[in-house]
Amino acid sequence: MTSSNTKIVLFNYGGGMRGLIPAHIMCRIEEETGLNMSDMVDIFAGPSTGAILNAALNVPSEADPAKPKYKARHMVRFYEREGERIFPADRFRDFRGFVHDFNNRTMRIGQLQKLLRHGHYSPSHLAKCLTDLYGDTVLSQSIRSLVVPLYNIDGGQLKAAQEPGEDQNTPVHTQNNFIDGGGHAVWLKHMQLPKNQKPTPHVKMRDAILASCAAPTYFPCHHFTATDPVRGHTREYSGIDGSIFDNPCVSYHGAIQQHLQPNTKTIMIMLGTGHTLRSFKKDDWNRFGGLGVVDPSNDLPLINILFHATESALIESFSQTLGKNLYNFNKSMVTGIGAENTPNTSIDDASPENFVRLKTFAEEIIEENRHRFETVCNLLVKNYENREKPKNRSLWQRIRFFKK
């Protein structure tokens, strides 16, 4: 059961086109409950493709700013319509990226670098799609609390952390273990909670999401600015994919918990995009060599491990923290590789055939967790009702006053 001191957090994972999986699950939730996700969820969190979904479901409608412009079914259509524009078919992208890296290490031929286009997809397609989706909506206009993670690779604007009384000439500043000039994790947040102590930075939604989606080897980093609305300070960011560091455990402890009252009951719903982390025998791993562990033809084994390592280290402790209030909807894609209906583990497969497989995969997750799915739908509806009670009570009190 939920009460007035309950907060429901929805965490959507990253995963490119595999974002269709949580989109389909949320579509089913909205069908079952008859409500929008923003009617029922208090805090939306998650990186990359999860951030695309979270932000879109919180864009206010022009007709009624308290209601969302999009439902989850609109996001299903978004991925299916825009997928091939964001990830156009390119059989030689990985090869160009490999040759580009080889050129940078050895020959450094400028013309070759231009021809190879760094092996990235063009960000212009994704930028156009997100501009169409969000328009000029800014982060502070989000209907509910929204947490957008990204990693800022350029720490040039960081202030030097300094202990009280510390010598200005100390080469390494020790406060909070930050070293001036390095990259750092960033959560751009709009928090509608009693303990929110910081104003929402003025930043366009599309910029925050573009940075959170800039997956290494797929898109270049996204450069943008955000302004402190109180002090007027503007900070520059060069952001890459928030999945570099963000997961439900880190997001809860690093970005969300500080805004919750001590007696708050937190329920977290985690919607996955398929487990894709493989295990390796020692001989297979050693055979990769120095470059093989980051080679796309090997499915980027080291990068995948780095993306998942923190969560694997924290998930047991995190599960104990939230206990029965943690609801995870996900399953492995790796165990089904080669089967007829198994989706492609790649994040850039925007083929119609893969769309069908991703929908089937989402339906399998729901059916394999049917009881938990129904429990979550009931919790979400109760949370909506608890949120609406004060409004209805106020209306009833006004009616009684006028009757007198």
Report on the structure:
This protein is an alpha/beta fold and 404 residues long. 43% of the residues lie in helices and 12% in strands. Strands 1, 2, 3, 4, 5, 6, 7 and 8 form an 8-stranded mixed β-sheet that branches. Strand 5 and strand 6 (234-241) form a beta hairpin.
Q: What portion of residues is helical?
A: 40-55%
Please indicate the percent range of residues in DSSP E strands (runs of 2 or more).
5-15%
> Helical stretch count?
13
Q: Indicate the low-confidence ranges by residue numbers.
A: 95-105, 170-180, 394-404
SSE class: alpha/beta
Main sheet: strands, sense, barrel: 8 strands, mixed
* Chain-averaged pLDDT: 85
What's the SSE blueprint?
Elements: E1 6-12, H1 20-33, H2 37-40, E2 43-45, H3 49-56, H4 72-86, H5 93-105, H6 110-116, H7 123-134, E3 145-152, E4 184-190, H8 205-212, E5 222-227, E6 234-241, H9 248-256, E7 265-271, H10 282-292, H11 301-322, E8 326-329, H12 352-368, H13 370-403
Parallel strand pairs: 1-2, 1-7, 2-3, 7-8
Antiparallel strand pairs: 3-4, 3-6, 5-6
